[in-house]
Specification:
Helix content: 10-25%
Strand content: 25-35%
Radius of gyration: 15 Å
Order of helices and strands: EHEEEHEHEE
Shape: globular
Number of strands: 7
Number of helices: 3
Distance between the termini: 34 Å
Largest sheet: 7 strands, mixed
């Protein structure tokens, strides 16, 4: 596959909604694509944009305790990781995740966790996350998920 160009940038949360709806909610126009935490001062929304400025990948990060690692001093949760189908496998998702991790480390976060769709578990494991516990059925989409955890070392 030929390399395709994209840039990774910080997004306004509203720029994530279309991709959240298309990829994570199967295009359902009535599906909820926002949460109250989106507008938190500490929330971070990262995306990849193609040469025309279209958002092709997104990830949002929120300060949130992790019940699997309650001793974490400054944990963050990854939510709404989405890559436009035509761009899956291009590296855009990994680049967005890496940019978020770098920013979180700069903020002193010591742990990143997510409820990962089991269909995407390989992606998270490839990027250094570890699976924790048994798979469970997520109530929002009725899809199997597994908690994944990435320890953020202080460099």
């Amino acid at each position: 596959m030929a390399t395709r160009a994209f840039d990774v940038i910080t997004l306004d949360v509203s720029q994530t909604y279309d991709l959240r709806r298309d990829v994570l909610r199967n295009g359902d126009p009535d599906a909820a694509v926002s949460i109250p935490q989106d507008d938190m001062y500490e929330a971070l929304h990262v995306g990849a944009v193609d040469g025309e400025g279209q958002v092709i990948a997104t990830a949002s990060f929120y300060p949130e305790p992790c019940t699997a690692r309650p001793a974490a001093d400054n944990p963050a949760q990854l939510r709404f990781m989405a890559v436009e189908r035509a761009w899956q496998g291009s590296g855009a998702g990994g680049a967005v995740l890496d940019a978020g991790v770098q920013e979180l480390r700069g903020r002193g976060c010591d742990l990143l966790w997510a409820n990962a769709r089991d269909t995407a578990l390989g992606f998270y494991l490839k990027h250094g996350f570890e699976a924790y516990g048994e798979s469970f059925l997520d109530y929002t989409m009725a899809l199997p998920h597994t908690v994944v955890i990435l320890e953020l070392s202080r460099d």
